[in-house]
Every structure is written in C-alpha cells, then in structure tokens.
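User: What would this chain look like folded?
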Amino acid sequence: MTERAGAIEYVDVEGGRIAYEVTGDGPLVVFSPGMGDIRSTYRFLAPLIVAAGYRVACADLRGHGDSTTGWDSYTRTDTAGDLVAIVRALGGPAVIVGQSFSGGAATIAAATNPTVVTAIVEIDPFTHSPEFSAAALLRNAPYRRGAFRLGRFLLTGRVSAWSSYLESAYSGRTPADWDGWLPVLHANLSEPGRVAAVREMAMAKPSDAAAKLADVQCPTLVIMGADDADFVDPESEAATIVDLLPAGLGSYRMIEHAGHYPHAQYPHEVAQALLPFLAEHHRA
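Assistant: Here's the prediction, encoded as structure tokens.
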C-alpha cells in the first residue's frame, strides 16, 4: 500500500476556504476539531487510524488553523456543509469524526447527506443543550471552574484566558508535547480574526444539531471522557445523545480519566473504541 503523505489542501465553499490535510490510503475518515482547536489536535490519534488502513483527512474549522477568516456565519450547520464539501472533494463516502462543536456538525452532515456520510463518531460532543439541576451544578466544582474560565475568555477575547480554560478542559492531564504544542495554538489564535471565530462558535446554540438527531440514518458512536468538566454528568450526556437517535443506531464508550480531549489525552484508548466501529460500519 502506498501511503499518501500529509499536505495542506483546500476546498472552496461559499464565503471562504477550508483547509485540511490527508494522510494514508484506504476508506476515508474525516476528523474535525472543536472550537478554538486546530487540526493537529488529532496528531496522536490520526496516525493510529492510518496505520490500520484508512485514509484520514484532518480539517480546520472555518476561521481556525489554515482556513480563512471573516465568515458571515459559524454555526454547526455551516461546519456540516464544510465537512461534506471535503468528503465530496476526496471522492467519499466517509465516516465523519467530530469533537465538541464538531460533534453537532457531524450529526447534521449525516442527517442531511446519508449517501455521503456512512457513519459518525462524536467525541465529547455538544450536540444539544444539556439539562441539569441546580443541586448537581453546586456539587460539581470542576464544571463551575471551567464554565467561569470559558466565560472569561468570551468576555475578554484574550488568548491567555483560552489557555486557562484548557487547563480545566484537559482535567490536568495534558499530552507530553504540551509545552511545545500550546504555543503553536496560541500563535494561530493570535492571528487576526481567529478569536472572533471562536467567540462566534461559542455563542452558536446547538439547537440545529439537536433538531437533526432523530433524522440520522447511520450508525453513531459517542466517545466521552469520564472526567470531562464541560458536562455536569458526562456519561449521562453520552447516554442522552444515544437515546435521542433512532433506536439501535447509537452507542457510547467512556474513556476513563479523560477530560474534554480524550483523543489527545488517551489516543490508544480512543483508537480501541474507534477502530472496531470503523471496521463494522465504514462502507468504502
């Protein structure tokens, strides 16, 4: 098998260009990050999927990474269209893997393009608005701390405030290359228009994704960090998303000790959950 080397490629969609990088040969899997992140968030997981015989495309969200800024809109529906455009450019069909904000986008892409998207994987997704009691919130100090730090970023737009939020989101378990990787993320977020894109995405409610959960027609796997401080009860959130899908299409896996970014914290454990799902449900 000849492996295709990664290089930045672009797809033009209305309003700008979306950057992505492709590695490997085989059935197509498209990875999309959460808001405020860049495609190298999958730097540990993607090689494991390529080594298993898949062609992996890691995308940058609009306004992030090497994608252009200045878009009129930054909703999950917009991102769904961007991801479908990548799948079509690469010949499709594909499994779409979306983390956080992109989990909702994967839902919409699957519901609206069933012949292009054969299955979806949602990693710690914001696919609908979680419900929780005031008592549960009072008991959950990590959630309160993370919400405060995220709110401070939204208020100030300071990159340092985003880094403070990430400390909570990673639950104190950052990758070994963190000290070298975080400055790369800082540099990208410091470019004109990047923080504005993150703030717009943060304000975009996931109601568009929630409305499409019942319309998904393909197998769906939710992978959730057991210690994800972005949710009052991570496992309950994963189970709720599965329950909102058509019967029999959804399942979830918890990654012990992981925060909001299990693919970067525990890539081998995520791969162990992801690869059997791909083998069973990818239709090349």
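The two ends are 16 Å apart (CA to CA). If you want, I can go into more detail on any region.
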